[in-house]
Structure formats: C-alpha cells, structure tokens
Amino acid sequence: MHSGSCLCAAVRYRIDAPIESAAHCHCSMCRKAHGAAFATYANVRRKDFHFTQGEESLGVYQSSPGVTRTFCKHCGSTLQWYSEQPYPNWLSVALGTLDTPVGEIAQKHIFPESKADWYAINDGLPLERRS
To answer: What residues make up the domain containing 75?
Structure first.
C-alpha cells in the first residue's frame, strides 16, 4: 500500500496495490503541467486508488478531449491524469506526490520525440515513441 499528498497536504490519497513501473512523459502537456523537463507517472487501477482527505479541494482540468488532469486547488500540485478511452479502469498518479517509498521499479521514457530541447535523455532507460 502507498499513500501520497499534495504540497500543502490538503489532498491525501491511498493506493491499495503495488506500484510496478513508472513512465517519464515528455509530451508538451505533461511538461507544462509539471513545469519540468518531464512528468513521472505510475498507472494504477482506479479500484485501488482512494482519496482519504480533501477531495473537495481537488481541481479538475480537461487538458485535451477525453483527458482529465487533477490538481490541488490550494497549492497547485499535479496529482493525476486519466482518460475514459481507451483505459477506463486506470489512472496515472504523479509519483512525486507519494509519501511512501516505492523502491526500484521498471521505468521508461514516453514521447521522447517531444522532449524539451534543453534536456538530454541519457540515462539508458527504454524510449517508447508514441504518435
């Protein structure tokens, strides 16, 4: 089991399943949402994700057709994104918001073709190109 929270701790959540892998997304939307070179997310089944505090403080933003991003209305922390299609039973949790350790897990870079021009991907992790 894992737990996490936003920067101000107004929103807290629990994940009732192991986190097995992470993706470092370099798409322009994730870069802008995180204000960083990439965003790191883990996919978890919706049935295993539960808000434990502050769900009323959750902001929701439709970043593109069918894609919803959530954030704390108080501190602005990005918390998750999800899409009803093609993965209605899954959501992606921003790993930087975890309060519990994950340990070593499988990782990959996605959308490397959209990476920031000032960032070099040279960590040897797999690159998954998507269109």
So the answer is: 2-114
For the entire predicted model, the pTM comes to 0.91
**Is there a domain that residue 76 lies in?**
yes
Q: What is the C-alpha separation between 99 and 35, in angstroms, rounded?
A: 20
CA-CA distance, 118 to 131, in Å (whole number)? 21
What is the predicted pLDDT for the residue at 88?
A: 87
Q: Cα separation of 65 and 43, whole Å? A: 20
Residue 71 in tokens: 């954030």
Give whole-number Cα distances, 127 to 15, 52, 54, 119, 130, in Å: 27, 35, 36, 14, 10
Query: What's the total number of domains in the chain?
Result: 1
| CATH code of residue 6 | 2.170.150.70
* pLDDT above 70: residue 30: yes
Residue 77 backbone phi and psi in degrees, to 5: -60, 130
Condensed to tens digits (0 to 9), the pLDDT of residues 57-66 reads 999 999 989 8
| d(C-alpha 127, C-alpha 28), whole Å | 16
